[in-house]
Structure formats: C-alpha cells, structure tokens
Amino acid sequence: MRLKRKIKNNSVPFVVLLIVHALILAFTFYKKRDKIYRKLLLSNIGFAYLFEYFVLNLFQGYTYKPNILKNRELDNILGAVFSQAIYIPIIGTTITAFHLGWKWKLLFTIYFSLIERLFIHWKIFRKRWWETFYTFFFLLLFFNVSDIWHRLLKGKNPIARGITSYLSFTSISVNVLFILSIFSMRFKLGLGMVHTWKEHFIIIPCYSLIISAILLITYKIRFKYSQLLRIFFITILDYLLYRFNVFKNKQTVYLLFPIHLFMFFISNRLFNMIYNQDAGDSEKVIDNV
Questions:
Q1: Other C-beta atoms lying within 10 Å of the C-beta of residue 4
Q2: What is the DSSP string of 15-43?
Q3: Which whole number is the average pLDDT over 32-50?
Q4: What is the pLDDT of residues 211-257, one digit of tens each?
C-alpha cells in the first residue's frame, strides 16, 4: 500500500505538468496556424534531446524518479522524455510564436528553476553534479536559440532545414526505440539491443543518429532505387552490430526490420513537411542542403 502511494505521489507532478504544457501547445497551435511552428517544435525537441544525451545519458548529471515504470533506468529516461520532449520545447516554441521578450524568457526560466527545486524537495529529481544555476543559464540560452532558429527556418535556410530534419527524426527514432524497449520488457519480446541498460541509453541514441543520417541522405539524393538503398545500408548496419556483439541476439535484427519499414514512411512524411514538399510531389528532386 505504501509503495502504491509513493508511485502515485511521484507521478502526479509529472502528469500535471504534462497536461498543463499540452494545453499550452494546443493554444499556441490554435492561435498560430503557420506550420513553421510545428517545425520549430521538432527542432526544439531535437536540441533538447541532444543536450540531454550528454548531460543525462553520458555523464549522469541528474536522475528523474517519476515511478511510472518498474525498471529504474527506463523510469529515469521517461522523466527525461517528459522534460526534454514536452515541457521545455513547448514553452520555447510558445515564447517564439508569440514573440515574447526577455521578461517572459526570464519568467519561464525562473518557473522551470523553481520546478526543479520543488522536484528535488519532493525527491522525484536528484542532482549529482548538476546545479540549478546550470538549468537557469541553459534555459535562457535555449529560449534565445529558439528565436534564432525560427528566423532561419522562416528564411528557408538550407542548413537549418537539414539540421531540423536530422535532429527531428533522430528524436522520433529514439522515442520509438524507447517504447519498443518498454514493450520488449513487458511482453518478453526478446529484444536484446545491448547488454545493459546503461549501454542501451548510450549506444541507441548514436544508433538513431546513424539511421537518421542514412534516411536523410537517401531522401536528398532521391533516385529510383533509393528505398532499396536504405534497406541495404540499415540491414548491413544491424548485421554488423549483431556480429560485433552490440546486439545480443539475431532476433533483434528480425524484430527491428518491420520497425525500420515503418520509420521509412515516417521519415518521408517528416522530411516532406520540413522541406515544404507535398506527399504527391515526393518523387521530385529538391534542393540540396
């Protein structure tokens, strides 16, 4: 009974913030119908994920404890998903969309810093070497980068669109593999992507970065057999990871194959949106990054 109450109490703040920020995003997209803000949100999520990879995955600066998932490592990453895929990117996008100035940026920076202190007090967030001052500094930086990136996307800067495409799909890929890991553990699918969870959350984001590079490059140099080229390169990659004992078993390669096919479809839709290309025109060659 005590354990259930602890799990419930830990998860409530995360869920409340999820609802609040989802409503903020809905309001923002309702008032600002320009599709560029969808691209900006994806960019912000990509930047936040890249930041979190170094601070959390590699150097373990802090730990989340939403107590939603039974596995401690998965639960920690779920907390990071709430923070870096929802809370912070949504506010960054909203600030940019409504052209809010430095006072609002400072206000939201204080808002997130206070949330961090509350989470520490409630013992659902634990710092290691990280400091709240770092949160304050990087949030201010993030909100300003969001404004700059919006201007670049609005000007159809080819480098900005390329980076947005790359990081956006990487974020989607990481989330899909994270969900797959949860289902694999829950239903005992036998997905052995790496040997330990610590290795998993170091290697899998790098794996997603490589996959994203393959998909974006084959999208940009589109020709008759580009889809087959994607399948060839990714199948070779999975096989090599199995042969070098990164993937624990051959079943992993088989399980990932239909996931890759699904991600091919998602990547085309995503890249078409970012490059302002209709699905019906997807066979046309577009300008290179």
A1: 8
A2: HHHHHHHHHHHHHHHHH---THHHHHHHH
A3: 94
A4: 999 999 999 887 778 888 999 999 999 989 888 888 877 777 888 88
Q: At what angle do helices 36-52 and 2-31 cross, to 10 degrees?
A: 140
Q: How far apart are CA 57 and CA 80, in angstroms?
A: 10
Residue among 240, 274, 49, 242 at smallest CA distance from 156:
274
Cα distance from N-terminal residue to C-terminal residue, the chain? 57
Rg from Cα positions in the chain: 20
How far is residue 175 from each of residues 42, 84, 178, 208, measured CA to CA in Å?
A: 13, 12, 5, 10
pLDDT digits (tens, 9 = 90+) for 159-177: 999 999 999 999 999 999 8
Helix and strand numbers (H, E) in the chain are 10, 2
How many C-beta atoms lie closer than 10 Å to residue 193's C-beta? 21
Q: How far apart are CA 137 and CA 127, in angstroms?
A: 16
pLDDT value at residue 221: 85
Structure tokens at 79: 């907390």
Closest-CA residue to 209 (of 179, 263, 155, 168) = 168
Are the C-beta atoms of 186 and 245 separated by less than 8 Å?
no
